[in-house]
Inverse folding.
């Protein structure tokens, strides 16, 4: 079964801290790794995505680190803000028509 | 663009009743996905359509669930008969899938279903 394992399930940091969320996958055919952000009562929205030809991608305060040999990738949020409090999902997709396999989610709380 | 539109936003029904959830994907997108989200199981892909044709329905829980996409701008997910364990938030997402590429999936606001 294709799986993406995400940790931790929940995370609390102070404003300005750098929360890190980790994901691991099994299927070596995966070639697209997006992160989605979900606020309460809303649908998930794409935050940032990476392909395995690079080891890091940065967009604003959000950075994905990718380790192909370890089959792991992580999301770092620099200078976190209370507005970043949300649930974050990692996902992975192979050459299968854009079907995504999601991790279990991480509920992040950034305290003021 | 209005984004992915889902209706109703909330549905409360009694066990045994038929439930129909509706989705209008983003215009121009050729792929549509139905997901179910629960605390216990997270986000689960139920079914995936490409060019209105069901490609993968391996995530559909059982025969009580059915999905249709009669045209490029409309899809339904039907549960008949509904059971309390079907209570969840159901999301529809759409994307533009071209050969050899992977594009962003855009999610709708979801339908919160409660089966009493």
């Amino acid at each position: 079964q294709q799986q993406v394992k995400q940790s931790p399930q929940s995370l609390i940091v102070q404003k300005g801290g750098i929360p890190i969320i980790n994901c691991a996958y099994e299927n070596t055919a995966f070639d697209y790794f997006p992160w989605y952000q979900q606020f309460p009562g809303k649908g998930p929205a794409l935050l940032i995505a990476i392909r395995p030809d690079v080891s890091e991608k940065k967009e604003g305060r959000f950075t994905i680190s990718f380790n192909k040999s370890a089959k792991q990738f992580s999301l770092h949020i620099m200078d976190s803000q209370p507005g970043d409090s949300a649930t974050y999902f990692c996902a992975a997709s192979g050459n299968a028509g854009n079907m995504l396999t999601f991790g279990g989610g991480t509920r992040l709380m950034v305290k003021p | 663009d209005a984004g992915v539109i889902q209706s109703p936003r909330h549905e409360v029904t009694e066990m045994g009743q038929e439930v129909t959830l509706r989705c209008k994907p983003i215009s121009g997108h050729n792929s549509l996905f139905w997901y179910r989200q629960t605390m216990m199981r997270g986000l689960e892909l139920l079914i995936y359509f490409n060019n209105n044709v069901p490609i993968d329905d391996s995530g559909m829980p059982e025969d009580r669930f059915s999905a249709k996409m009669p045209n490029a701008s409309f899809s339904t997910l039907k549960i008949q008969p509904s059971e309390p364990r079907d209570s969840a938030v159901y999301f529809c997402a759409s994307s533009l899938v071209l050969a050899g590429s992977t594009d962003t999936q855009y999610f709708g606001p979801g339908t919160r279903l409660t089966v009493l």
Chain B has a mean pLDDT of 93. Chain B touches chain A through 24 residues (CB under 8 Å). Chain B has no helices and eleven strands.
